[in-house]
Specification:
The complex is a heterodimer of chains A (about 400) and B (about 160).
Chain A lengths: L1 H13 L2 H19 L5 H12 L4 H26 L8 H49 L4 H17 L5 H16 L1 E2 L6 E2 L13 H18 L18 H23 L5 H15 L11 H17 L1 H7 L5 H12 L8 H4 L1 H20 L1 H16 L2 H8 L3
Antiparallel strand pairs in A: 1-2
Chain B lengths: L1 H4 L15 H21 L13 H20 L13 H21 L1 H12 L8 H22 L10
């Protein structure tokens, strides 16, 4: 089958020492960022954007992608052990993960979260690969009107799927358009909204915008919050018992399915996937009263879903050029920095980049699940250390 | 994240019209809209069939103006209260730190700029001592030098000379 040939090609590229190194780096940084409350993948990717200028595009994107799904693994560790979600998509894991930990099943919860995430990551990798084939076919027919339609669709989706006030969402879309107008006009050469500042003649730099919006903003809001001294639950046996495994498997399957679907939707991603999976799991469960008190399904499903969602949210970006969430907007920026235009033609023009990235996602997931036992044993010291230096870490990063 | 989006009632802002988030969001939108409209007239509007550089900004500005008025008008029915506890200390110190970095980078070089930024921004976080601040400042300066100057060879002024 052609699909496997292309995947093999991707693995060949992703397994070069350099790309392997950056995949590992991304997953590692992602895990650290996930463990540290107050520093999410969005802020970190925003801060790392300037560094990727100097990397080869494939390596840069592999690293940034690794950071995103690595954060999903790391975030669940603190959620389970300390009841502090290291990452916003791990908020629901706190509910039952920490309850399991207090019952002395911390190790099992960690293992279920990691194995569930790995399974979901594997499935999502294949989904992206399968999705891409019909997209290549559609890509060949794409013309300017189609791109225009896509843009309109993206802007409308941004309004429809935003949380909160619709009017305010429209206002923010328009403000974004105004910021986009700054700089020298493409057709007439007239400079608009530059106020005579030469730096603005090429428009507002996306890196600067992302830094201010996602980097500095998040740092300040986290500094304003204080974290209490956490109580770390001990990790006993790392393996789930028979009953836990029996309950986890179907939940992981459902979580993967829900996460994969919610990740593809514009506005979707890991966060919505995790919440959606938890709610559905609770509704369908024969024992809904157990949720919040250490239900295995309440850990397995959202953890699988957030990882599946994190990965399938690459589909709209890679195939349509539409970022479905803030992380994807930053990935789009990273591609643009390297002169790559994400969209229907990406797979035709840069198959190396596309397939190497997909293959690296699976490799990164494998790395993360292998390091899970090590993570489990060190995570106690990790997470107790994590809460204290958060403040100093986030502050340091403001300089970047 | 989701929990932050919930409207949270705070004691300092009552249910009055001035205490609604939408009122002030609307006012900010109207101010921005008027500025955009004003500026767009300077660029030449062109005609409907052959639009000038000011045409699109004008349309966006008018849309913003309408939405701003709508926000203010409907604010009374909104349940979203104005969040008045702003972390001024954090906002101020981090902002001043970044501005200091921008001003110092070309004049005093990267090392001084980084140390200054860390020293200014450090009190924004709780639990920082002078020693820990100095250590992180020096470490960050060394790390930045290694990464940006030594490995990536980006032309940044390292010192003031």
């Amino acid at each position: 089958m052609e699909l496997f040939g292309q995947l093999a090609y991707g693995f060949e590229l992703a397994l070069t020492p350099q790309n392997l190194l950056f995949c590992f780096l991304g997953a590692l940084i992602g895990t650290l960022v996930g463990v540290l409350p107050g520093l999410g993948p969005v802020a970190t990717i925003a801060m790392l954007l300037p560094i990727t200028f100097t990397l080869p595009p494939v390596a840069a994107l592999i690293m940034l992608a690794g950071l995103y799904y690595g954060a999903q693994y790391g975030g669940s560790t603190t959620a389970i052990l300390v009841n502090i979600p290291g990452e916003s998509s791990s908020v629901v894991t706190c509910l039952d993960g920490h309850a399991m930990a207090r019952k002395g099943r911390a190790g099992a919860a960690l293992a279920i979260a990691a194995l569930g995430s790995f399974f979901a990551g594997t499935v999502a990798t294949f989904i992206i690969a399968i999705f891409s084939a019909p997209m290549v076919w559609i890509a060949s027919t794409f013309q300017s009107p189609d791109y225009f339609g896509l843009m309109i669709f993206g802007l409308i989706a941004a309004v429809v799927l935003a949380q909160g006030s619709v009017v305010r969402s429209i206002v923010m879309v328009l403000v974004g358009l105004i910021i986009g107008l700054a700089g020298t006009g493409i057709t007439d050469g007239q400079s608009r909204f530059t106020f005579g500042i030469p730096y603005l003649s090429e428009g507002v730099s996306f890196v600067a915008l992302a830094m201010g919006l996602f980097g500095v903003g998040e740092v300040i809001s986290n500094l304003a919050r204080t974290f209490g001294k956490p109580e770390v639950q001990p990790v006993s046996s790392l393996w789930p018992n028979r009953d836990e495994a029996r309950r986890a498997v179907p939940a992981v399957l459902r979580g993967t399915a829900i996460g994969s679907i919610l990740g593809v939707l514009p506005g979707g991603g890991a966060l919505i996937a995790a919440f959606g999976a938890y709610v559905i799991e609770k509704k369908w469960s024969k024992r809904p009263e157990e949720f919040g008190h250490g239900a295995v399904e309440g850990v397995a499903a959202p953890e699988a879903a957030n990882n599946a969602g994190a990965q399938t949210s690459f589909i709209p970006l890679l195939t349509l050029g539409l970022p479905s969430n803030a992380v994807m907007a930053l990935m789009l920026a990273a591609m643009t920095i390297h002169g790559i235009v994400p969209g229907p033609k990406l797979m035709v023009e840069r198959p190396d980049l596309f397939w190497a990235m997909i293959a690296s996602m699976w490799i990164g997931n494998l790395m993360l699940v292998i390091t899970c036992p090590i993570d489990g044993s060190t995570s106690q010291s990790w997470s107790s250390a994590a809460s204290a230096p958060t403040a100093s870490r986030t502050r340091r990063s403001t300089c970047w | 994240m989701a929990s932050e989006d919930m409207p949270r009632p705070s004691a300092s802002s009552g249910g009055g019209w001035l205490g609604k988030a939408d009122t002030w969001a609307g006012v900010a939108t109207i101010v921005l809209a008027l500025a955009v409209i004003y500026v767009s007239f300077e660029y030449g509007l062109g005609r409907g069939g052959r639009i000038g550089p000011g045409y699109v900004p004008l349309v966006i500005g008018l849309l913003l103006l309408g939405l701003g008025v709508l926000l203010v008008a409907r604010a009374g029915r909104s349940v979203d209260l104005l969040d008045t506890d702003i972390a001024w200390r954090q906002v101020g110190l981090v902002t001043v730190g970044i501005v200091a970095f921008a001003l110092l980078l070309d004049r005093a070089g990267m090392i001084v700029a980084i140390l200054a930024t860390v020293l200014i921004a450090a009190p924004a976080a709780y639990g920082n001592t002078l020693v820990s601040t100095l250590i992180s400042g020096v470490a960050l300066a060394a790390f930045s030098w290694c990464l940006f100057v030594y490995f990536l060879k980006i032309s940044i002024p390292v010192w003031w000379f």
